């Protein structure tokens, strides 16, 4: 008579090494390119480090992806058993190994920081790293940027700028295209603009003569002395009175921060209508004393 005994629980739970390997192979760890994971460095190699991120195979961090600044000794930046975040930049290979990067995380953080600086209108220190026909390439906190020649203060001796630190402001930031364009000229204008106050007496040189007025170089920025603000009397021709490069003093009568526009006036310095036309030298020589009176009149005090 045959026995109808059933297998014991232990027999039902028998699990061979092959079965375990197959189950492990079928296990999906969900690691994808672009995913941020935490892991621990546990072994160095000649060209990188192995990192435990909880996968079936150790992940690999190439030395070139260890830092935005570029290093050769991983132990300085990533000691053994140190834990931190990594970005997966290559999905699992046949062995289940993914490739990691710290550098790409730092690049993303830098772009985010620069975007914040741009939004707040702040300038940044950059170092000139190279020269081309259009301008200079610069290092912007580890990222590569570009300043067009037209946005440099010194546009003639570009080679002499290599290695120098410049203050620049942002013109265009496009992380998707890796485009980072800056302006030293606008940063200088912005800095100078912030130093100028309404009713302040400023001194500059005439940089351009137009039918409607004079553009005055104020050392880093420029102001407009409109023809109607030069004198209380009518002026027929500006070129008969002024020349490019001529020094001039004027009162700031309007500031438009949004458009970085500075409006100037010499009319308010006159003791009588037409004095700027008849005796400009006297108005300029005593401009400081006249400025106090003009300031009170403009402020209504």
Automatic annotation (TrEMBL):
Under InterPro entries, the record lists: NA-bd_OB-fold, Ribos_protein_bS1-like, Ribosomal_protein_S1-like, S1_domain
Gene3D superfamilies under this entry?
Answer: Nucleic acid-binding proteins
Q: Where is the S1 motif domain?
A: 34-103, 121-185, 199-267
What's an example Gene Ontology biological process for this entry? translation
Q: Which GO terms describe its molecular function?
A: mRNA binding; structural constituent of ribosome
Membrane-crossing residue ranges in chain numbering: none
Which keywords are on file for this protein? Ribonucleoprotein, Ribosomal protein
One Pfam family, short name? S1
Gene Ontology cellular-component terms for this entry are: ribonucleoprotein complex; ribosome
Per the UniProt entry, the signal peptide is none
Q: Has the keyword Signal been applied to this entry?
A: no
Q: Mind telling me which PROSITE patterns this protein's record contains?
A: S1
What is the role of this chain? Answer: Binds mRNA; thus facilitating recognition of the initiation point. It is needed to translate mRNA with a short Shine-Dalgarno (SD) purine-rich sequence.
Family membership noted in the UniProt record: Belongs to the bacterial ribosomal protein bS1 family.
What is this protein's record name? Answer: 30S ribosomal protein S1
Q: Which organism is it from?
A: [Phormidium ambiguum] IAM M-71
Cite the source lineage: Bacteria, Bacillati, Cyanobacteriota, Cyanophyceae, Oscillatoriophycideae
């Amino acid at each position: 008579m045959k026995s109808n005994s059933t297998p014991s629980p232990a027999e039902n739970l028998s699990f061979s090494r092959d079965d375990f390997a197959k189950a492990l192979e079928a296990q999906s760890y969900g690691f994808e390119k672009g995913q941020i994971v935490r892991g621990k460095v546990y072994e160095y190699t000649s060209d990188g480090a192995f990192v435990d991120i909880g996968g079936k195979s150790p992940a690999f961090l190439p030395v070139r992806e260890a830092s935005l600044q570029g290093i050769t000794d991983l132990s300085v930046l990533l000691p053994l058993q140190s834990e931190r975040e990594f970005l997966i930049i290559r999905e699992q290979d046949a062995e289940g190994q993914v490739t990691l990067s710290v550098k790409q995380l730092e690049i993303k953080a830098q772009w985010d920081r620069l975007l914040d600086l741009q939004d707040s209108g702040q300038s940044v220190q950059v170092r000139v790293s190279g020269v081309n026909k259009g301008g200079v390439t610069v290092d912007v906190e580890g990222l590569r940027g570009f300043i067009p020649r037209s946005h440099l203060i010194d546009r003639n001796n570009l080679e002499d700028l290599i290695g120098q630190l410049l203050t620049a402001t942002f013109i265009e930031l496009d992380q998707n295209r890796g485009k980072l364009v800056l302006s030293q000229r606008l940063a200088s204008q912005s800095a100078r603009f912030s130093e100028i106050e309404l009713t302040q007496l400023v001194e500059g040189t005439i940089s351009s003569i137009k039918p409607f007025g004079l553009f005055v170089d104020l050392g880093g920025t420029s102001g407009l002395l409109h023809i109607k603000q030069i004198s209380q009397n009518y002026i027929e021709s500006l070129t008969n009175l002024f020349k490019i490069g001529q020094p001039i003093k004027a009162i700031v009568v309007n500031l438009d921060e949004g458009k970085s526009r500075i409006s100037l006036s010499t009319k308010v310095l006159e003791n009588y209508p037409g004095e700027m036309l008849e005796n400009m030298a006297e108005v300029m020589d005593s401009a400081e004393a006249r400025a106090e009176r003009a300031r009170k009149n403009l402020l209504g005090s």
